[in-house]
Prior knowledge:
Elements: H1 15-31, E1 35-36, E2 42-44, H2 45-52, H3 57-62, E3 65-67, E4 73-76, H4 81-90, H5 93-96, E5 100-109, E6 121-130, H6 135-151, E7 157-163, H7 170-182, H8 190-195, H9 209-214, H10 227-243, E8 248-249, E9 261-269, E10 277-283, H11 287-290, E11 298-304, H12 305-314, E12 326-330, H13 333-348, E13 353-355, H14 362-371, E14 376-380, H15 382-387, E15 390-394, E16 400-403, H16 408-417
Parallel strand pairs: 1-5, 7-8, 12-13, 12-14
Antiparallel strand pairs: 2-4, 3-4, 5-6, 6-11, 7-9, 9-10, 10-11, 14-15, 15-16
Helix pairs in contact: 6-10
The structure holds histidyl-adenosine monophosphate.
Amino acid sequence: MQTIRGFRDILPEHISLWQRVEQEAFSLFESFGFKEIRIPVLEKTDLFARSIGETTDIVEKEMYTFPDRKGGHLTLRPEATASICRSYIQHKMYATDPLRKFYMTGPMFRRERPQKGRYRQFYQIDAEVFGIESAYIDAELIFLLNELFKRLGLTGLTAHINSLGCPECRPSFQRALLDFLGERKELLCENCTRRIQKNPLRILDCKVESCQQALQGAPATIDHLCPACADHFDIVTTTLKKQGVEFMVDKSLVRGLDYYTRTAWEIKTTTLGAQSAVAGGGRYDGLVQELGGPATPAIGFAIGFDRLVEVMAQLEIETPKPPLDLFIIALGAAALEQAYHWSCELNQRGLRTEVDFRGKSLKSLMKRANKLNAAHVLIAGENELKENQLILRNMETKDQSSLSMDNLVPELINILKS
Ligand code: HAM
């Protein structure tokens, strides 16, 4: 039996980078006032279709959707923003305190063509803020991401930032884009030709070569902002500059989801080939209302967890594995019984201790202690038990001392914790 295409196991030998990222990210989120939320992996299809947009690649061709037995359709979540909005509305969080900051991590599902850095089940670390219109929160989220990547030791990342405008300025931009594309229609791919009237902004995100060619010199949202959007964007960029956060304004950045308004960004790397975005986010001031809640400004981002770990591995960022404090070599039935109780008690008291219960020889158990990177080995053979003198070996210095069994556990704790 094998995993299905685009799905994979993350094995214990690779997990330490994942855990390190989670620890750094969660502790940073908590400092910035975020609270963890957990949401289902399965939702009604309609939630994603309405939020992400009917004419996006995600909704048109990448969702894992199936009919429910009782009618209706369900979808494995392709992202977290829509579900968190649903939760915010469903639990009427706006009524008790409209200002909410959430974070979560978990698997997302998109049926894309698998390649390096692109999977059909992948993981995101997601953060969302509801109820703040001020541009300082936009800057704060980009600052937070930058700080996280700095703490993780990542280099070679660039923040690309753009403003996509709001319902005030979008129509004038769309008119300008449609006028521009009017004479270049024959260059557009089939998909874009179909989408052009319904959702002209999607064309800007098309990767097809001829569409890219048609877009050479196309108008940019940022040149069509209303005064309020222009001021908003100005505060974001000025604030980041003051904080020394490096970024570039990227007029061509549009993002692959329809809900965005105003600030949108992606953090890109040069180390993963075509899959260059390790994080993406932006404002979505209309979505809560669109989904049936009160008008609520909102903003967030998601980090591609798999990609982040791949970049860290390429940069050879390692997390030292904590060694085993003690490996107990117990030879014979009586010693095994004793070792079982000592090790349970030591584990209970917070010391990483292991016994191998398979009844192997001294030589093979010493090998295993080395493999497990044990700091100390306790040897309890039949003779040692008889003489009430166990051997404790420091694996680094090779020093050996003898210990009586009478007060063994407290004695070991003393030695191992010092
Ligand atoms: P997104 O740009 O679709 O945004 O995804 C965010 C990140 O998830 C990407 O930058 C990428 O690193 C990672 N990612 C996406 N697809 C895959 C894949 N197939 N395999 C591996 N990694 C992938 C969102 O999902 C928005 N919900 C972000 C957001 C939150 N906007 C506002 N709030």
